[in-house]
Design a protein that fits this description.
The chain has 142 residues and is of the alpha+beta class. The chain has helices at 22-39, 44-50, 125-132; strands at 5-8, 52-63, 72-82, 88-97, 102-114, 119-121. The chain has one domain: Hotdog Thioesterase (Thiol Ester Dehydrase, Chain A, Roll), CATH 3.10.129. Strands 1, 2, 3, 4, 5 and 6 form a six-stranded antiparallel β-sheet that branches. This is Thioesterase family protein.
């Protein structure tokens, strides 16, 4: 099962300066998370059945290299941390240019929301275990 996804940037991803707009980085990272969850068996339909949803507390993007229209980018996600019960987690997404250079990193802190009670909750054991199988983030050495 792959952890990274390749995309081609579109006109809609661009800003008036001719490079990828700030929110497009977050959109690509979110899509990579959704695809990964579906690969683990937790697609939108399954979350609806469980009455469970992922939520974010924080999202931070570091921009390192310009991305232009029509460029191929690759997005991955690595687990930076997770609570023992899987209820809270941090994922670092790296967005790579086609030549392998890092264009940006998107770091998100999240948790699971019980959609009926509107309160944070512990995910099913198989979801918590799936998260633990995600590659672990290692900060680049300086």
């Amino acid at each position: 099962m792959t952890n990274d996804i390749t995309y081609r940037t579109r006109w809609a991803d661009m800003d008036p300066n001719g490079h990828m707009r700030h929110s497009a980085y977050a959109d690509f990272a979110a899509d990579q998370r959704v695809v990964l969850l579906a690969q683990w068996g937790f697609d939108v339909k399954r979350f609806a059945q469980l009455r469970l949803g992922p939520i974010l507390f924080r999202e931070e993007t570091k921009y390192l290299k310009e991305v232009n229209i029509g460029e191929e980018i690759r997005v991955d996600g690595h687990l930076a941390s997770a609570s023992e019960d899987g209820s809270r987690w941090t994922i670092v997404h790296t967005i790579f240019k086609a030549d392998g250079r890092v264009a940006a990193t998107v770091t998100v802190d999240g948790a699971w929301l019980d959609l009926d009670r509107r309160k944070l909750t512990v995910p099913p054991a198989e979801l918590a275990e799936a998260f633990k199988s995600m590659p672990v983030y290692e900060a680049p050495s300086k």
